[in-house]
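Chapter review: from sequence to fold.
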Amino acid sequence: MVRGFSSYCDEFGHPDDPNKNFMGICGLLGWSDDWITLSRKWRDIQKSECIPNPFHMTDFVHHKEKFSDYRWHSLDERKRVLKLLLDVINPANLIPVSASVSLRDFNSLRDEHRSQLKNPYDVAFQEVTFNLAAAAANRALQTAQEREEFFGNRIAMVYAKLKKFTGPAEKLWDAIKEFNPGVGNWMSSYTPGEPADYPPLQVADIWAYTLGHLQEKQQSGKEEARIAFKTFVHATFLNQGLGHNYFTFFDRREILSRLGQLPEME
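The token string follows.
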């Protein structure tokens, strides 16, 4: 049976933000029907618990914007609601993938190297897209009972809209699909989406906030981020051996190696 995959991705950090040291993208891969089940449960919880839509982890943790009501100032209440949402995520058997770029290291590159890479978002986008497709191919290989199942389970990819980046990212996605058949054959569609319309993008937002926040803050990170991180670490552990990178960190050495350069040669 051909089920098909879907992935949902959101970014953290911004290259123009002087208060950020990292920018990256976090993605989650799952069977499309599992995402449908998750979305239904997510909407039910939002309705029964009066949780604003979209659920935005930054606003939730810092109780601002739509989460500025006094109710959200309580850490115990936030932990209770977060647990309800994480309990919806766990059964979906999602595969987390992420890529993070050191902004300091990227900005220290020569102009010629930065021009080749365009920007940190593109670096992370290409890596996450590649690894999501590789994960889909490997999971299809593990589960397919016949040839049609293996080759038919392609992945529809949805990325959270980001001003000034979404349009160029679609061109990059098309280039990956066309010129990298090893993963391109598994890529079916690219869609920019709004989190309010896609509950799975709200799940990706939790993953993106969690990784980005803990990278920036480390031991001083928010308790909500540490709680959520355990869910994604558990999902990673369950899916070990799928033959792809769960997390890629682009420091200066890694960036230059992708360009065919060694740091001492730069």
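Two observations follow directly from the output. The two ends are 51 Å apart (CA to CA). The first strand starts at residue 5 and ends at 12.
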